[in-house]
Amino acid sequence: MKPKYLYAALFVSASSWMASASVATPEAAQPDLEKTYADAARRIRETALRERGAWDKLEILCDDIGHRFSGSPQLEQAAAWAAKTLRADGHENVRLERVMVPKWVRGRESLEMVAPRSATMSLLGLGGSIGTPAEGITASVLVVKGKKELLAAGDKARGRIVLFNNAMPPYDPEKGSGYGTAVRFRHKGAALAAAQGAVACLVRSVTARSLRSPHTGAMSYDNVVSRIPAAAVTIEDAEMIARLAARGHNVRLTLKMQARDEGLVPSSNVLGELRGSSLPEEFVVIGGHLDSWDVGQGAHDDGAGCVMAMEALTVLRKLNLRPRRTIRVVLWVNEENGLAGGKQYAKEHAEEKHVAAIESDSGGFHPRGYSLECKDKARQDAAVRQLEAMTALLAPLGATRVVAGHSGADVSPLKDSGAVLMGLDVEGSKYFDYHHTHADTLDKVDPQELQECVAAMATVAYIIADMPEPLGR
Amino acid sequence: MKPKYLYAALFVSASSWMASASVATPEAAQPDLEKTYADAARRIRETALRERGAWDKLEILCDDIGHRFSGSPQLEQAAAWAAKTLRADGHENVRLERVMVPKWVRGRESLEMVAPRSATMSLLGLGGSIGTPAEGITASVLVVKGKKELLAAGDKARGRIVLFNNAMPPYDPEKGSGYGTAVRFRHKGAALAAAQGAVACLVRSVTARSLRSPHTGAMSYDNVVSRIPAAAVTIEDAEMIARLAARGHNVRLTLKMQARDEGLVPSSNVLGELRGSSLPEEFVVIGGHLDSWDVGQGAHDDGAGCVMAMEALTVLRKLNLRPRRTIRVVLWVNEENGLAGGKQYAKEHAEEKHVAAIESDSGGFHPRGYSLECKDKARQDAAVRQLEAMTALLAPLGATRVVAGHSGADVSPLKDSGAVLMGLDVEGSKYFDYHHTHADTLDKVDPQELQECVAAMATVAYIIADMPEPLGR
Question: How far is Cα A305 from Cα A294, in angstroms, rounded to an integer?
Fold first, then answer.
């Protein structure tokens, strides 16, 4: 998923969140870091851009293993492969750390329009949803744009399938994707609709572009009593249902879902290290999440984040760039539907000194810079200035943007550790076209852009791990 | 389909065809036509752009009826609806003309990768393909880019499923879509592969953009002996199979298709007229094809062409613009997999004097002008000059381009009638993203652009029908 937007949506409105994010000014740059690490940055960049190590790893992850949903055998294969690969690349302290993850099983699912005519629709049940009875749920549809229309409809939702036909705007280079606002009904739509007496909930897929493409994602219920099945439909089908309803048709659908919760099962975060030369017990974490949804290949979300962290460590090791502090790759599990890996890591490693934790979970696109946040605002401000000096070294990649105010989902449980939490910021115009779909596949990843991400991550991780004082001090 | 590219591909190489098309120069324009019809053109344009009649018709066709494959009840519903709508709009001589069309039935179909790992793939069987045995065909894959690689592989195709992984280039505003070249293996791949001993044929979908989107389309066999099942796979799956094979994996697939030929069944072309005031037995035909593939809604292909012709006639009638000659709307059937409607119309109406036949089958996008061709080259040249004068009146729409050398599939059987054959030329960057897929749906059509097409078609049809001499004389 793209947690920064998601969390923004859950806790504050996206617009107020956008306003609270600040782009730091270049005046604050610190030339010393830039000068000290210019040579290392050049070597890292040249090596990363010359090679295709991240792509080669991603090819195995996507093609030989495939999607890696929490609770699936593929996720365990991926963890074993990642550990083996980290060891083969010569890294230290490679290990699996056990995490209990939820096992939600999609089963077969279908959506048929039965009136005013017969038609088969594309759907993806939402992760966490309950299933339907075997014969399905057949009911008339109430189409609403959002909560306000739902509440205004009063009793009309009773006994109906509620369709939230809420459109995500086209990507805007200034404002971003609008995902944070659009995703609300995927998360909470079923609870809202159930409270009004609905028998099932459909959500227009959270995307601005579609070729009849359903997008799955996590949902949650308010309480046990009001659980109704929830699924995503395509823009195309949502619009058709809305048009038919607007012309007075009674649109009736049959939804069948075998979705079920099979409880908790064991899985693992994967760790590997480049041990620090003089401060090995201070850690800079880099990573992504190893799990994906149960469709597509999880190439951008978040195979790319995993392999770029793995490869960043490998590039540093090849160049004999051993920093003062330890750089630790962490590949978290269960980011998509529970965040069990991120939480477990923070809990188990609470006693360790984390200087920074850098996550990549926005795809393997051309890097633009970094986002960051820190509980201690003075430290955050100082970190912004230092990051600007570091990212000045990424100017040949065009990755000089530093934005304060957010980071990523898997590092977020570390916020009380005092670490500076960071997210790799990448070009975002296409991410949500593929996000949580059958189409998040390796062909969407550009090998060169992925290696640019490796360079951006290795450079910044190395400098943070090697600079004399901890980041933000 | 997009017949001009298809036919180019079948008979000449696309590049030589592109070179033979000529864009006529503006010096040749004829100011008389421009002056005579300036007022009519303005009134047509203003009326068409103020209204949404074509969109309203397309909404019924797409949403209330849906896709309309030859042999389906929906195609017959569409014909009945079109006739009723033409009558309701006050048109003359509205009638159905019987055409026997092939009934090919897709049935259930599936494609599973069984080695090196298990995975479900998206597919669409190709129209005209035979099915597989009930247990499916399981075989190893031979990946080739085209015929040359297939032949070079010699015996390696024997007993295998051949995958033609031939990429269509991204759309180029100068060169167009590259469809004509890319579509070859969809048409002839099964025959080529069968000749080498293959047991089934898969073709990379003919598109440059995909969100795991299979594109169907027509195919044909060389002879009865060498028939093997043929289906389209997505770019994503074709690329994955090719990558796995390139790394030495033995990729094995199970293809199941229930596809079957159910012979010929009755259907109908739909006709309606605005009778000419003084030369009613001379005809200017305008139209599109009423049938679609059995997926999506056939919105751009070619619901748009049908409704723009219907609405063009209605706009002229509303404005009391009755030309000298008769303008006849023809909605052909079975363009997609046989051209039975186009052939039948030409045969049944061979004795009538057709001055021009204008087809729209490239979608309801922003109009750019017209293509045209005529067996008599002197007449074609004269027609180009006259068309330039007419399309000068379409300058407010930006539809002034006149290209000689091709027209459209449904009008092509009229070539011996002496008529000037024409095609509405529209902005083409997105057409093949949707073409023959689940995603060719109404939301992809812009109501304003569709009405621009109505204006472009009504203006040119009116002038050709009203000018003193027949077009090109």
Answer: 18
Pinpoint the residues of chain B covered by CATH 3.50.30.30: 107-258
Please say if the pLDDT value at position A21 is more than 70: no
Q: Which residue has the tokens 């195309």?
A: A236
Query: Residue A63 and residue B244: Cβ atoms within 8 Å?
Result: yes
**For residues A219 and B104, what is the distance between their CA atoms, to the nearest angstrom?**
42
Q: How many CB atoms lie within 10 A of CB B204?
A: 30
Cβ-Cβ contacts under 8 Å for A49 (sequence gap 6 or more): A448, A451, A452, A455
Q: How far apart are CA A33 and CA A356, in angstroms?
A: 17
Considering only CB atoms, B66 lies closest to which of A63, A64, A119, namely A119
For residue B25, the tally of other CB atoms under 10 A from its CB is: 11
**A435 to chain B: nearest residue by CA?**
B211
Q: Are A371 and A423 in contact (CB under 8 A)?
A: yes
What mean pLDDT do residues B266-283 have?
98
A209-236 b/e (C-beta count within 10 Å ≥ 16 → b): bbbbbbbbbbbebeeeebebbbbbbbbb
3-state secondary structure of A372: strand
Q: What is the pLDDT of residue B461?
A: 98
Contact A434 B211 (CB under 8 A): yes
Q: Which residue in this structure is represented by tokens 């280039």?
A: B169
Instruction: Kindly tell me the sign of the dihedral angle through the C-alpha atoms of B76, B81, B86, B88.
Output: positive
- pLDDT score for A9: 36
E strand spans, B318-444: 325-332, 353-359, 367-373, 401-404, 420-426
Residues of chain A with CATH 3.40.630.10: 3-104+263-466
The pLDDT confidence band at residue B193, using thresholds 50, 70 and 90, is very high
Is B3-104+263-466 a domain of CATH 3.40.630.10? yes
How large is the C-alpha radius of gyration of chain A? 23
Kindly provide the b/e burial profile for residues A4-42, where b requires at least 16 CB atoms within 10 angstroms of the residue's own CB.
bbbbbbeeeebeebeeeeeebeeeebbeebbebbeebbe
Distance CA A306, CA A445 (A): 13
Task: Give per-residue pLDDT as tens, B296-335.
Answer: 999 999 999 999 999 999 999 999 999 999 999 999 999 9
Which residues face A301 on adjacent strands?
A: none
Rounded to 10 degrees, what is the CA torsion of B165, B171, B175, B181? 20
With bands split at pLDDT 50, 70 and 90, how would you rate the model's confidence at B31? low
pLDDT digits (tens, 9 = 90+) for A84-121: 999 999 999 999 999 999 999 999 999 999 999 999 99
Looking at B76, B311, B335, B449, which residue is catalytic?
B335
* Residue A54 contacts residue A308 (beta carbons within 8 Å): yes
Local structure of B59: helix, strand or coil: helix
The residues on A that touch B, with CB distances below 8 Å, are 59, 62-66, 116-117, 119, 122, 209-213, 235-236, 239-240, 243-244, 247, 296-297, 433-434, 437-439, 441-443
Region A167-179 average pLDDT = 93
**Residue A404 predicted with pLDDT over 60:** yes
* CB spacing of A66 vs B210 below 8 angstroms: no
Report pLDDT for A174.
87
B236 CA: distance to closest CA in chain A (Å): 6
Is B107-258 in CATH node 3.40.50.300?
no
B335 is catalytic: yes
Q: How many CB atoms lie within 10 A of CB B102?
A: 18
Give the CA count within 13 Å in the CB-facing half-sphere of B435: 24
Residue B19 CB-density burial (10 A; 0-12 exposed, 13-18 middle, 19+ buried): exposed
Burial (CB count <10 Å: 0-12, 13-18, 19+), residue B227: middle
d(CA A303, CA A58): 6
Mean per-residue pLDDT, A161-188: 94
